[in-house]
Every structure is written in structure tokens, then in C-alpha cells.
Design brief:
It holds the Pfam family DUF6790. By secondary structure, this protein is mainly α. It is built from 8 helices and no strands.
């Protein structure tokens, strides 16, 4: 694996680990005010898993699209830069969403989650139809594309009662 591939793999693993750790630290620091963990985790996951990850992925796809395509073992296309603009857009929304209304947070989460599940489906389709077992196709990128939307959906559903009470 190239050093670029190692960086991308680490990037995805990091963005799966940072939100629960940062939310736990925040909750532990402020637990005396009775804040519950799940709403905080949702905001942290949106900020890091959608905002920071989307923003950074977008910049990488816009400016280094050829290396991203190589990591996936896919042919490069100018479409990678367009995909980067989509990631960048959701990244900016994800950076704003934790500080906005719950509706904005949910809309941002669901929109990016739908994209990620679609991306995961594309990776799996490529594995099944071409046998592409490149790390970028079946490694941390795939797991991130599956886990982030599932956890976001679970947190949205798990915090809806808290939102009604607020």
C-alpha cells in the first residue's frame, strides 16, 4: 500500500473514532449539568464524521483526484472533482449543523448518509462485478461509508424523545 493509501485508510479510521471519544470527554466534563450522551454524540459525529471528513475528502478529491482514483483502483475521471464539490458542500453543512436547529442537523445527516450508503453500494458492486479488492474499495472507506450513516440514523431516532422534551 502506498503512503497515500495508508493516509486515506487512517483518515477513515480516525473519523470513526474521534466522535465517540470527543463526545465522551465533553459529557464527562459537563455531566454535572445533566446533559445526556446521545445528543452530544450526534452533534460530534455530524461535526467530525460529516463536517470535517466531508470537507477534507472534498478538498482531496478536487485537488488530488488522480491519487484518490488510484487508491480505489478506478480509472480517473473529471467527475472525481465534481464528487469533491459535493463532499465539500456536505462538509460545510456538517460543520454548521451542530450549531443550528435540530431539523438542519437531521437534514444534513440524512443527506450525507444517503450519499455514503450509495457510495458503499458502488464499492460493493465493483467488488462483485470486477473483483476489485483494492484497500480503497473494501477497506476503511467502505466501513466508514456503512457505519457513519447507520450510527447517524440510530442517533437521530434515539434522540427524538429528547428533542420533543426540549
Amino acid at each position: 500500500m502506498t503512503s497515500h493509501g495508508s493516509f486515506i485508510a487512517a483518515f477513515h479510521i480516525l473519523f470513526l473514532l474521534i466522535p465517540p471519544v470527543s463526545a465522551a470527554l465533553w459529557w464527562h466534563h459537563r455531566r454535572n449539568i445533566g446533559v445526556r450522551y446521545r445528543p452530544i454524540l450526534l452533534k460530534h459525529l455530524v461535526f467530525v464524521g460529516v463536517g470535517v471528513q466531508g470537507f477534507m475528502a472534498g478538498l482531496k478529491q478536487i485537488f488530488t483526484g488522480e491519487s484518490i482514483a488510484a487508491y480505489l483502483d478506478w480509472a480517473y475521471s473529471p467527475f472525481v472533482a465534481e464528487l469533491g464539490l459535493m463532499n465539500l458542500s456536505f462538509g460545510i453543512l456538517g460543520l454548521i449543523a451542530p450549531f443550528a436547529s435540530r431539523g438542519f442537523l437531521i437534514a444534513t445527516s440524512l443527506g450525507y448518509g444517503i450519499f455514503l450508503i450509495g457510495a458503499a453500494t458502488g464499492h460493493l458492486y465493483d467488488v462483485i462485478n470486477t473483483g476489485n479488492l483494492a484497500l480503497g474499495n473494501i477497506g476503511p472507506t467502505l466501513w466508514s461509508d456503512i457505519l457513519i450513516p447507520l450510527v447517524l440514523l440510530w442517533l437521530i431516532l434515539a434522540t427524538r424523545e429528547n428533542a420533543k422534551a426540549a
